[in-house]
């Protein structure tokens, strides 16, 4: 997960607002491989060491940069034989990734919004509808594609952790859009809609 943390450190250090062009320049500088999905003159899909990343700009100009650090596709039947077991596996991957964020160079600047678990703080994971710009994308090595297109709709978090970071929102969570779509662990950095100043752009 080191390339993802390094990119988050770079993106968090960029002067606000977060822009698609600025993010793409950091991916290129870090040696990520472009996926060939250019929008408005900016490469939006990137891969490195098994992680897939994509840049998305909303209609309001808010930019979100997302990383898929783990993906589990549906079984050959087109669905999951044991969906809860897949959720639990995703939560274990997420739990293993969170310490990397906590050890990062920007950890001291994070203001935690808290874990969102199922039930009464049990930490078992919640299926909470979430549509705040934390779009999802294709998994490791995927370079965007169809799963990035799915990001245009609302995601659904099975479990998540959220922080604010100098006018940005950092979200890490297990995401599942629909029964026949992959379950993913996704990390997203995006402009905080509650922060003053411009939301973002190219």
Q: How would you characterize this protein structure?
A:
The protein is α+β, with helices and mostly antiparallel strands. The protein has one domain. It has four helices and eleven strands. The strands form two sheets. Strands 1, 4, 5, 6, 7, 8, 9, 10 and 11 form a nine-stranded antiparallel β-sheet that branches. It has a two-stranded antiparallel sheet with strand order 2-3. The chain is globular. The two termini are 27 Å apart. 42% of the residues are buried. About 19% of the residues have low confidence.
Compact overview of the structure:
The protein is α+β, with helices and mostly antiparallel strands and 202 residues long. Helices cover 23% and strands 32% of the residues. The chain contains 4 helices and 11 strands; from the N terminus they run H-H-E-E-E-E-E-E-H-E-E-H-E-E-E.
Name some characteristics of this structure.
alpha+beta; two-stranded antiparallel ribbon; single chain; 4 helices; 202 residues; 11 strands; 23% helix
Given as residue ranges, the uncertain stretches (5+ residues, pLDDT < 50) are: 115-147, 149-154
Please indicate the count of domains: 1
Helix content range of the residues, please? Answer: 10-25%
The pLDDT mean sits at 78
Global structural class = alpha+beta
Sheet of most strands? 9 strands, antiparallel
Task: Output the helix-strand order.
Answer: HHEEEEEEHEEHEEE
Q: What distance separates the N and C termini? A: 27 Å
Radius of gyration: 16 Å
Number of helices: 4
Shape: globular
| Count of distinct strands | 11
Binned strand content:
25-35%
């Amino acid at each position: 997960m080191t390339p993802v943390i390094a990119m988050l450190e770079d993106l968090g250090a960029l002067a606000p607002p977060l822009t698609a062009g600025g993010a793409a320049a950091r991916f290129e500088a870090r040696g990520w491989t472009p996926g060939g999905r250019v929008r408005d003159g900016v490469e939006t899909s990137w891969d490195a060491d098994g992680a897939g990343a994509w840049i998305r700009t909303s209609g309001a100009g808010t930019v979100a940069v997302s990383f898929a650090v783990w993906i589990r596709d549906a079984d050959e039947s087109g669905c999951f034989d044991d969906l809860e077991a897949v959720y639990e596996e995703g939560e274990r991957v997420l739990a293993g990734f969170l310490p990397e964020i906590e050890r990062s160079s920007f950890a001291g600047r994070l203001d935690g919004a808290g874990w969102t678990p199922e039930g009464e703080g049990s930490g078992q994971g919640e299926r909470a509808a979430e549509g705040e710009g934390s779009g999802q994308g294709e998994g490791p090595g995927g370079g965007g594609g169809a799963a990035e297109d799915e990001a245009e709709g609302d995601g659904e978090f099975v479990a998540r952790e959220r922080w604010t970071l100098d006018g940005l929102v950092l979200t890490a969570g297990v995401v599942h859009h629909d029964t026949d779509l992959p379950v993913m662990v996704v990390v997203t950095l995006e402009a905080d809609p509650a922060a003053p100043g411009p939301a973002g752009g190219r």
